[in-house]
Amino acid sequence: QLNAGPNRRLTLVSAPAGFGKTTLVAEWLSGVDRPYAWLSLDEDDNDPVRFLTSLVAALRQVDPGIGQANLTMMQSPQPPPPHALLTALINDVAAVPGSFILVLDDYQEIHTLAIHQQLAFLLEHQPAHMHLVITTREDPPLPLSRLRACGQMADIRQADLRFTGEETADFLGRVMRLTLSLDDIAALQQCTEGWIAGLQLAA
Question: Labelling 32: which of 3, 76, 176, 186 has CA 20 to 30 A away?
């Protein structure tokens, strides 16, 4: 499912805490043959200027030339409106040779409307060689329905991240080094509903 995503604009990995969203994306990126930028978000990133500054810094991991104009404009006494800053950033991204991936991790920390609007604008205008991955505990207020309808979004949910019975047995036996009966494994699978953090705690 993740490998199918980069042909689209967005991959959304949405599930409650403890389902391994960040681990999944990090391990996937380790085997992907393209550069990536990673931005881990927290409560402090709800300031639109800070968010955009952090976004530019993350994208410069892919190409140091990205966002130089943005940094200059944001430091001016009267910064231009957000759309002008984003347009300059998109133009820089468009000039990057080759495809790359941008990951926004823990997007549930963002609750500022202006930032959601900035990201929606970026999604709408992002160059085809950039792919956005969002990990979150709740769906962000972005145009997700339209992206799904256009086939521009890969959707990974709680049901996709749950461990199956076979995966639970493998995890408990091989990773946690426990010798359990099939009944015990089945009971743990049922009570945790395949929630990896729950399985780890139980182990």
Answer: 176
Q: Residue 43 corresponds to which tokens in the numbers above?
A: 């409560």
Q: Of 12, 18, 19, 11, whose CA–CA distance to 159 is shortest?
A: 19
CA distances from 174 to 95, 110, 115, 180 (A): 47, 37, 43, 11
Between strands 10-14 and 153-156, the pairing is parallel
pLDDT digits (tens, 9 = 90+) for 10-39: 999 999 999 999 999 999 999 999 999 999
Tokens of 34: 């393209």
The rounded Cα 19 to chain-centroid distance in angstroms is 14
Does the predicted model carry a pTM greater than 0.70? yes
CB atoms inside a 10 Å sphere around CB 2: 17
Q: Give the model confidence (pLDDT) of 61-114 as tens digits.
A: 999 989 888 878 877 778 788 888 899 999 999 999 889 999 999 999 999 999
